[in-house]
Every structure is written in C-alpha cells, then in structure tokens.
C-alpha cells in the first residue's frame, strides 16, 4: 500500500521549469506581447497590476479599522504594497536557493529576481477581490443569498455548485475572477496567477481534506473552473483529489508574506490606536526576535513610534529568514504535494505569532470601532443587493411586480451590465455573478454613498 501511495505522489511531482513558465493567460489565444528587453514577463505583471483600476480601488477599502477617521492606519492598498515588498524578499531568497539546487534553471533563463517578481506580483493582488468593509463584506454578501427573500429567491434557477458560490462569497475566488477577466485586460503570466491562488479548489467539493491548508477555502467560482484547469495543465500542477488541485509552490510564499504583514502591522496599528499597550506590543515583538531582542537599546529612541518601527522592521526580517528556511527544508515535499501547511505554522516564531493572533482577536478585531464598521458593512451591502436583486427579479422573473422604481434602480447599473436574454427559463447565474462583481468592486465610500441614495437617505449631490 505504501508503495502504491508513493507512486501516486511521484506522478503528482511538479517541476520548476514548468511552474515558472512565462507564458500568459489569454483565453482567446490570439494576442502576444511585443518583445521588451527592459522588463521581464513577471515585472510586466507587477506593472500591469499597479496601473489597474481594481488595484487603485484598494486605497479606499478597509483593512481592519474604519476609514477615513484614522488615515494613519492601513488601507487594503498600503497593506498590499507591504505584503508585496515582503513577498519579493521571500521570493528572491528562495530563488537563490533554487538556482543553487537546480542549476539547470539558469540555463533556461530563470534568475532569482524572477522568483521574487512572481511572488511580489501575486502578493500585490492577494486582496484585490475583497469587497467593501473587509471580511464583514464577504459575510454580508453570503448572508444575503442565504437568508434574504430576494437572495434565496434565485436558488431554484441555478445549479447546486452555482448556489454554493453565491452563498459563500470568497474574496480569493473573486480575485481570481478579476485577474482572468477580459474586462480588466491584465492577461497575467500563468506563474503569477497560480502563485496568487492559495486555495485551488471550487466552492462545492465532494471531499475536502481539512488537514490540507490549501483546501481551507476555495479559490475560483464554478464558471472559472475551466480557466484554472487550463492553468494547472500548462504549469504541470496535479490534483490532490478529484475536486482539488495542489498549490503552486510559490503560493506558500505569498501566504507567508500576508501572514507576516497582517500579524505585525495589525498589532502596530492596534497599538497606535491605543487598543494594545506599548509595553505589551514591545513584549510580543520581542518574543519573535528571541535572543536578538535587546530592550535596553530601545531607550535611545525618544518616541514610541520610533521604537515600534524599529521592532516591526526587525520582526519582519526575522520572520522572512525563518520562512525562507522552512521553504528550503520542505521544498521537495511541496513539489510532491505532500507538504500543505502555512509556513508560518512551522517556523520557530510560530508560537509568538499565535499569541499575537489571539491578542488581536481579543483587543483589535473585536474592538468597538471594528465592530461598528462591520455592522455598517452588513447594512450597506445587504441594502444594495436587495434593491438591485429585487429590481432584476421583477424585470425578468416576477414580471407582474415590475415597477417604475425598479426601472430607475436598474439604470444605476454599469453600462456594460448584461441586461439582455434573461427570463423564467434562463439560468440567471451569469447575471447574478455580474451583480456581485458590481457590488464587491465598490470602494467603502462609494458603497455607502450609493446605499444612502437608493434608500432615500441622501439626495444626489448632498
């Protein structure tokens, strides 16, 4: 039996030369990039993302704390830039290791900087699919379809897989959808898209292995399954079971970069806002540093912000070193699909990070400002989904209820919204997917402003 399992693992073995393909995801298979001797394909990915509208919108999306009252704490944009910076450091260090261990990679034009660029670009997009109001926004969209009359009214018209998509909104899957969308025109490289996909499975699976980190959530909607399958075939990514694929190895580094940043930065923001004491914050960061922590050296800094900045930089540097070392040790098991945990769960600082996480839940994520923001997010997103879903339902499915109010509401949808071809005998999933695209793509301010207008709380121009 063990020999049989070993054979299966061998068949699933991934190979770096395929995993690092610089080919681009182009569903139409028609376009090719002109030659560019200055930038690599992976550097182009980074530049395309930076200049894209979905990325710019992150500047007005909540990270943890409400906006804009505290402009000095992190938005999704600043968080993503920091995760990308950490990701580049992780990727370049791992790249140097890979080139030393697999020297043939250099003969096909792979450099350590390429690995860094892939991880940096993928990390830059890791939150691009998040809706307004953070994780509360994800829950609000899911709850609307589960519990609201004009949400679950659609269930009889869609498949069970599609219904699972709607009732379990996932920012990671929304991000994949945005990155492969022809509308956004990014056409990223296969390697960057795969490194972005931390959870390579659909929402509804026959069997989910809870021991595998990559199966904790899902990474693409049912109408993008063929897209991911194509991506996996190009890169030689095998399956963990009939429904779930293995992770691209660099996805572990993207995840680690995010884990490092939100653990350390959320703690720093919480301290800045007075939710966690300076003494407690310093002690927790000191736990990460271990023997390198020398509290007496902090005394030469006059301001608490300086002390926190120094410790934050040192802690992030230490975590990068530990995650790189963990990746080196697990590289072969990752390629075989045997290892499937967060790197930050197996490093020496794992216990210290766990303590920071527990404190953050207690003192930061359940603080009054954060809970107020979440409550507002539920109200706003449910309200927007209600008015648009009701109007669409009345126009195409319960036509006897269609009113002038519905007509006015539908005029507020984007000009490219699919308004033709729906009816009682037609599956509305593509239309509902477009509606969720519209709502989830809003910034916090725009969502709140539109909610006030459609609910008659504020008039246009006020």
Automatic annotation (TrEMBL):
GO BP annotations of the record are: dGTP catabolic process
A Pfam family that this protein carries is: HD
List, alphabetically, the SMART domains matched.
HDc
SUPFAM superfamilies listed in its UniProt record: HD-domain/PDEase-like
Show the GO MF annotations. dGTPase activity
Q: Which chain regions cross the lipid bilayer? A: none
Alphabetized, the UniProt keywords read: Hydrolase
The UniProt record lists the HD domain at 76-263
* NCBIfam families listed in its UniProt record: dGTP_triPase, PRK01096.1
Task: Write the protein's name.
Answer: dGTPase
């Amino acid at each position: 039996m063990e020999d049989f399992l070993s054979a299966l693992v061998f068949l699933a073995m991934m190979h770096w030369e395929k995993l690092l393909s610089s080919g681009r995801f182009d569903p139409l298979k028609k376009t090719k990039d002109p030659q560019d001797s200055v930038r690599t394909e992976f550097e182009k990915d980074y530049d395309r993302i930076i200049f894209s509208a979905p990325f710019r919108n992150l500047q007005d999306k909540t990270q943890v704390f409400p906006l804009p009252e505290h402009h000095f704490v992190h938005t999704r944009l600043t968080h993503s830039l920091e995760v990308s910076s950490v990701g580049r450091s992780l990727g370049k260090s791992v790249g140097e290791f890979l080139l030393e261990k697999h020297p043939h990679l250099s003969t096909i034009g792979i450099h350590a900087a390429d690995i860094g660029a892939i991880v940096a670009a993928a990390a830059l997009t890791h939150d691009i699919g998040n809706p307004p109001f953070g994780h509360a926004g994800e829950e609000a969209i899911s709850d609307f379809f589960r519990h609201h009359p004009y949400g679950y009214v659609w269930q009889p018209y869609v498949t069970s897989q599609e219904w699972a998509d709607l009732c379990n909104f996932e920012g990671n899957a929304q991000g994949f959808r945005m990155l492969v969308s022809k509308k956004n025109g990014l056409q990223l490289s296969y390697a960057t898209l795969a490194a972005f996909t931390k959870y390579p499975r659909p929402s509804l699976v026959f069997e989910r292995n809870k021991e595998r980190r990559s199966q904790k959530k899902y990474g693409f909607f049912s109408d993008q399954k063929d897209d991911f399958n194509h991506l996996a075939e190009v890169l030689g990514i095998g399956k963990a079971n009939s429904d779930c694929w293995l992770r691209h190895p660099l996805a572990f580094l993207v995840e680690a970069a995010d884990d490092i940043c939100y653990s350390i930065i959320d703690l720093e923001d919480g301290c800045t806002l007075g939710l966690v004491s300076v003494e407690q914050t310093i002690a927790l960061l000191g736990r990460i540093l271990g023997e390198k922590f020398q509290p007496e050296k902090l005394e030469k800094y006059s301001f608490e912000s300086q002390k926190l900045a120094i410790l934050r930089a040192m802690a992030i540097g230490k975590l990068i070193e530990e995650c790189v070392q963990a990746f080196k040790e697990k590289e072969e098991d990752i390629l075989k699909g045997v290892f499937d945990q967060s790197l930050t769960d197996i490093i020496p600082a794992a216990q210290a990070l766990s303590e920071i996480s527990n404190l953050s839940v207690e003192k930061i994520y359940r603080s009054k400002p954060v809970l107020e923001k979440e409550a507002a997010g539920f109200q706003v997103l449910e309200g927007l989904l209600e008015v648009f879903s009701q109007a669409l339902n009345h126009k195409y499915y319960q036509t006897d209820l269609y009113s002038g109010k519905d007509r006015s509401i539908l005029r507020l949808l984007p000009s490219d919204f699919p308004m033709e071809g729906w009816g009682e005998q037609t599956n509305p999933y593509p239309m509902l997917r477009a509606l969720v695209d519209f709502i989830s793509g809003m910034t916090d301010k725009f969502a709140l402003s539109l909610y006030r207008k459609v609910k008659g709380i504020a008039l246009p121009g006020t």
